[in-house]
Design brief:
- By secondary structure, the chain is an alpha+beta fold.
- It folds into 4 domains: about 70 residues, no CATH class; about 70 residues, GMP Synthetase, Chain A, domain 3 (2-Layer Sandwich); about 60 residues, no CATH class; about 45 residues.
- It is about 25% helix and about 30% strand.
- The protein has 7 helices and 13 strands.
- A 5-stranded antiparallel beta sheet has the order 2-1-4-3-5. The chain has a 5-stranded antiparallel beta sheet with strand order 12-11-10-9-13, with no helix packed on it. A 3-stranded mixed beta sheet has the order 6-7-8, sandwiched between helices.
- Helix 1 packs across helix 2.
- The two termini are about 55 Å apart.
Length: about 270
Amino acid sequence: MSEIIGVRFREVGKIYYFDPKNIKTGIGDKVIVDTSRGLEYGTVVLANKEVSDDKLVLPLKELKRIATKEDKEIVIKNKLKEFDALRICRAKVLEYKLDMRVISAEYTFDNTKVLFYFTSDNRIDFRELVKDLASIFKIRIELRQVGVRDETKIIGGIGSCGRPLCCHSYLSDFVPVSIKMAKQQNLPLNPQKISGVCGRLMCCLKNETDTYEHLKKQLPREGDYIETHDGVKGNVSQVNVLRQKVKLLVTKENDEKEIMEYSIDDIKSISKV
């Protein structure tokens, strides 16, 4: 067992585990930790906790200290410098006529490196750009290409539901989403209807999948032959998963067809087709 704390470096970013070195922390505390990029400033989202070693990638990097007032002032200054860095980098991209879109700039806490995140449909030779930026900022430069989902997560926006994007507001990791989930929820298979701002399938399709799977287990499928408690028999013509109701195509004595709706509780027996 090892004592760990969970730290985020972005508001809804991935959670990283660190060795607290016997320093007690609380959720929401600002801390300075040692990372592969050097010292970084983050927020505690998981306070001191014992975790089995087989669930961790050892050895863990260390918590250096609880952030001081001076540390917080450094972070504010870095944020201000990021605006200028982004503006300069975008101007240089235009100057070199590179087919890339710079979306964000980020200084490391210790000011030893500035990272630029960009998107592009092609591989970019940005060696001359990096040399130029290094001569301007006098620190290490790193350009990191990200996909359209990561771009949307960084920038944010409003979804078709009218709410802030899931990836920007609470999703720490992207979950696999498939067209099968849309079919399972009886959604129209129109790319414009089921795609998010990023152009990929909406992450929220995953949110409802488990519920739909559970509810569908209790329901017949379209075409199944049903008998209700009041003696009505017919084939299922439509299933409403959320309301837990089915519509039956019933044949009357005069051979007339009629659609009748029943709750799952009204069904006596189901004959699968």
